[in-house]
Design brief:
Layout: H1 5-8, H2 14-24, E1 32-35, H3 45-60, E2 64-69, H4 79-92, E3 99-101, H5 106-118, E4 122-125, H6 129-135, H7 153-164, E5 174-177, E6 192-196, E7 210-212, H8 214-224, E8 229-233, H9 240-250, E9 256-260, E10 264-265, H10 272-280, H11 295-301, H12 305-315, E11 323-324, H13 326-340, E12 342-344, E13 346-347, E14 350-355, E15 364-369, E16 379-384, E17 387-391, E18 411-414, E19 419-427, E20 433-440, E21 458-459, E22 462-463, E23 468-475, E24 500-508, H14 511-518, E25 525-527, E26 531-535, E27 544-550, H15 555-559
Helix pairs in contact: 3-12, 8-9, 12-13
Bound molecules: adenosine-5'-triphosphate and magnesium ion.
Length: 561
């Protein structure tokens, strides 16, 4: 046992410390958090971090989490996005308390605005946006009061009601909070709280033509729901003063905002706006393209909820921004997939191997475990015959000494089968090896090997006459640089042109087709010696298509040894 009591304590992140204190000091008896996506795009892995933080804290403290659609900007939002967000949160394995919409609070928010107006804390400003910007000042010099700042509460209320009833066109005027045009915090210089937008809203239809701003909606929505801890990303830090100002002036539930560092992941971009550009410009095939850092892209690629949750757990929460290496995410995928991926043999780049001492019409069914990590997955039978496919790069003509695969005169073991010796090759007119001729050693059968023959390498293989053609999608990073959003110029200039490699002539052992015909939902696979794979959503038993989730090589674990 350690002598230092501090070492025995479980280490807590700064949010847990805050919650512990709030509970100890009786500020709250239970906690309620919220995840507040704006339905203007699909969720990405950064959102998964936020979901993990909000739902994770609630789980830990036996509290709850609301799913709130922060839908104050009808122009960019849609029901398609709402549905995808719900689906992704559920898929990640989290259950929300209530499904709520900021737009459901529009009437209440309108009443809040009226209260500010009546208390002399908000006014209608007819200035143009250029005029307002010109009077805003700079971070080092104060702004100037608007000529409309001294309108009476009665006048403001009448104008605000006219804004609501649709008497003014877009941009005619706005409602501003009356705070302090000299505040060092620019957000406190009479921020806009309502703007006119004659736009149909996906949730409220034509009911409203004025919409509250983020700042006027967010904290108040938290307060309406009695959210105890409103957790957001660091860029909202300057908004906190305004968040508190509204809550204080409106005398509503004292929700509190806390900020943590957003997740940045290497070799990708993480803002919905940028991801939307990739989709719209056709750089990827939709939001769920397996190269996208979206939850739906990761799912299609074969990532599991467990892998994503483990990743979020490992990165933790902190107050300083950094870029997390994508290989940590890949490491978490491998770790999880290794436990339940079914092992199958698939040859991606086929070369024919002939076993010359095996009868042409003889077929043996060799048994092999579906998953050595999980005996419950049972065994499968693999047909073995005279002609096999092996990987082209598992044979080398003038091989160096350390090449432990196939070359004339050398031995290898064929996985779950026999040791073979390579005797000869057949070449085409161009001098390329098109066939490898070998002899097998009958007494070297896997599990019953009495041959005494040594073989350093083990190769995967597929029987030619039983092989099932499959299409395999191999992926590389979507961008060529570590942090494309940080580079000069357009982030799209750094797109990796070779991020997708489609292999149309791969061969799989027949069991893979049987799987597709029998499993009601797709399984994860390890294609032996190649990586982890997952059936694409377009895959059918007639045309099998697999996405590579991640390769087998583990660079992250090596780097951190
Ligand atoms: P984006 O910039 O990608 O559009 P956003 O912040 O506008 O993201 P919202 O839908 O408003 O997206 O975000 C919902 C919640 O997810 C917010 O609390 C936000 O702070 C959080 N979030 C968004 N991106 C990240 C990220 N990269 N890391 C952690 N949390 C994030
Ligand atoms: Mg946003």
């Amino acid at each position: 046992m350690s002598n230092n009591p501090a070492e025995e304590k479980e280490s807590k992140n700064f949010l847990e410390e805050i919650i512990d204190k709030d509970l100890q000091e009786g500020r709250h008896t239970s906690i309620l958090t919220r995840f507040p996506p704006e339905p203007n795009g699909y969720l990405h892995i950064g959102h998964a971090k936020s979901i993990h933080v909000n739902f994770g804290l609630a789980e830990k403290y036996k509290g709850e989490t609301n799913l709130r659609f922060d839908d104050t900007n009808p122009v960019t939002e849609s029901v398609e996005y709402v549905e995808s967000i719900k689906n992704d949160v559920k898929w990640l394995g989290f259950e929300w308390k209530d499904e709520l919409y900021t737009s459901d609070y529009f009437e209440q928010l309108y009443q809040f605005a009226l209260k500010l107006i009546r208390d002399g804390l908000a006014y209608v400003d007819d200035s143009s946006s250029e005029e307002i910007a010109a009077l805003k000042g700079t971070p080092t010099s104060p702004g100037t009061n608007s000529p409309y700042r001294n309108r009476t509460p009665e006048e403001n209320e009448a104008l605000f009601n006219k804004m609501r009833s649709g008497e003014f066109p877009d941009g005619h005027c706005i409602l501003r909070a009356k705070i302090d045009m000299a505040s060092p915090n620019m957000l406190m210089r009479d921020p806009v709280i309502y703007r006119i937008k004659h736009v149909k809203h996906h949730h409220t239809g034509d009911k409203w033509c004025i919409y509250p701003t983020y700042d006027f909606a967010h904290g108040q929505s938290d307060a309406i729901e009695n959210i105890t801890h409103s957790i957001c990303t660091l860029e909202f830090m300057p908004h906190r003063e305004l968040y508190n100002w509204f809550i204080e002036k409106l005398e509503i539930f004292p929700s509190k905002q806390y900020e943590f560092a957003r997740l940045n992941l290497s070799y990708t971009v993480m803002s919905k706006r940028k991801l939307l550009q990739l989709v719209d410009d056709g750089h990827v095939n939709g939001w769920d393209d397996p190269r996208m850092p979206t939850i739906s892209g990761l799912r299609r690629r074969g990532y599991t909820p467990a892998a994503i949750r483990e990743f979020c757990k490992r990165i933790g929460v902190a107050k300083r921004e950094n870029v997390i290496d994508v290989s940590l995410l890949e490491f978490c995928a491998r770790e999880d997939l290794n436990k339940h991926a079914l092992r199958r043999m698939v040859v991606l780049n086929p070369l024919k191997l002939v076993i010359t001492n095996w009868d042409a019409d003889k077929v043996e069914l060799l048994e092999s475990e579906n998953n050595p990590e999980n005996p419950e997955d049972g065994e499968r039978k693999m047909p073995f015959g005279r002609e096999l496919w092996i990987e082209k790069d598992d044979f080398m003509e003038n091989a160096p000494k350390k090449f432990f695969r196939l070359s004339v005169g050398r031995n290898v073991r064929l996985k779950s089968a026999f040791i073979i010796t390579c005797d000869d090759v057949v070449k085409n007119e161009a001098g390329e090896v098109v066939e490898v001729h070998c002899t097998y050693h009958p007494d070297s059968r896997s599990g019953q090997d009495t041959s005494g023959i040594k073989a350093k390498g083990t190769l995967h293989w597929v029987s030619v006459s039983h092989a099932v053609p499959v299409e395999v999608h191999q992926y590389d990073r979507l961008f060529k640089v570590n942090n494309p959003a940080d580079e000069e110029g357009d982030f799209k200039d750094y797109i990796n042109p070779d991020s997708l490699h489609v292999i149309t002539n791969a061969y799989a052992e027949p069991e893979l087709k049987t799987d597709a015909e029998t499993f009601s939902s797709p399984r994860h696979y390890q294609f032996m010696r190649k990586g982890y794979y997952y059936p694409d959503q377009t895959s059918t038993p007639e045309k099998l298509v697999y996405n590579q989730t991640v390769g087998l090589r583990d660079t992250w674990a090596k780097m951190n040894k």
